[in-house]
Amino acid sequence: MIGESSIWTEKYRPKTFKEVKGQKDVVSKVEAFVKQGNMPHLLFAGPAGIGKTTLSLVIARQMYGDEWRGNFLELNASDERGIDVVRNKVKDFARTRAIGDVPFKIIYLDECDALTKEAQQALRRTMENYTQTCRFILSCNYSSKIIDPIQSRCTVFRFKPLAREEIAHIIEKIAKDEGLHVDAKAEEALFLVSNGDVRRVENLLQACAALEKKITEDVVYSIASYAKPKEVAQLLEHAKQGDFPGAKKILLTVMLEYGLSGTDIIKQLQAACWQLSGVDDRKKLELVKSCGEAEFRMVEGADEYLQLEALLASFTLTLQR
Ligand SMILES: Nc1ncnc2c1ncn2[C@@H]1O[C@H](COP(=O)(O)OP(=O)(O)OP(=O)(O)O)[C@@H](O)[C@H]1O
Ligand SMILES: [Mg+2]
């Protein structure tokens, strides 16, 4: 039984295909494999927190029922001990036959894009050696980082960040079960901040719920250390009016109040540039370009305040022209 102290990402992890939100195409194809009781090697690609591990666990539960734990091995490819450990664990696991009717076991290998090309070659040979007794589900953020010979041995599925309504469904379900009140603006804030990453939504909700049962957008933004879109818009508005000190004041407040890093702010500023009204597209392009340059300099180690101030100066100049 799951206790009160459990973490919500586990508590609300789907156990059936139906409970997996979004990823419609992927789910229906994978479900068909399970119905046949056979499947090829799979490659799951896509950003964090959107159901790659979850769907693999669902496959295992549906294929093997109560015996799933004995037939499913989860490994992390980027484990610092490297591909040799993976190879040995696979060898041990693959030595015994699957329990039950299904003729193979499943090995889930997370973060395959962290493997070097050489390690991927070794993985490819391992996959070939154990095809009789095992199916591999490989997971990665970027399929382009996976060598062709592996890609061609797998059926590739691309996972997408969840859409607004899908995230809303998940929030509403949790709110009901946990006795929370999440208003529409807070729901919108959770979507904005998470970018469709369900893990992030669930973790934020849990953190907010520890503070209050009534969750508002203010609570969400402060927990997520994310500037309110309204404040970012105001900042740009000041720059547009040529009021550099005004823009700078908002910037400082936002950074200190929410503890945002320079690169966090730049991402929000860049997104907000597109929303500016009454500014022609060419100028917007210039703004976006300066965001990119400032971000690069920050990543390379330049002072964040200095770069942000320079960025605001260039915004003010561009918008005043
Ligand atoms: N499509 C989804 N439908 C419902 N819940 C989801 C979905 N995707 C993720 N979740 C929730 O988010 C949690 C994390 O998801 P999961 O472990 O599947 O992410 P992942 O795609 O494997 O990410 P990573 O690349 O970081 O490993 C799950 O435990 C579950 O609670
Ligand atoms: Mg995962």
Mean pLDDT: 92
CATH architecture of the largest domain: 3-Layer(aba) Sandwich
Can you give the helix content as a percent range?
A: 55-70%
Termini separation: 64 Å
* Rg result: 24 Å
Structure in words:
The protein has three domains: 8-158, P-loop containing nucleotide triphosphate hydrolases (Rossmann fold, 3-Layer(aba) Sandwich); 164-223, Helicase, Ruva Protein, domain 3 (Orthogonal Bundle); 229-320, Up-down Bundle (Zinc Finger, Delta Prime, domain 3), CATH 1.20.272. By secondary structure, it is an alpha/beta fold. It is built from 16 helices and seven strands. Helix 6 (117-129) links the parallel strand 3 and strand 4. Strands 2-3-4-1-5 form a five-stranded parallel sheet, sandwiched between helices. The protein has helices at 8-11, 24-36, 52-64, 68-71, 83-95, 117-129, 148-153, 164-178, 184-194, 198-211, 217-223, 229-240, 244-258, 262-273, 281-299, 304-320, and strands at 41-45, 72-76, 105-110, 134-140, 154-158, 181-182, 214-215. Helix 5 (83-95) runs parallel beside helix 6 (117-129) and helix 12 crosses helix 16. Residues 9-10, 12-14, 20-23, 48-54, 110, 170, 198-199, 202 line the site of adenosine-5'-triphosphate.
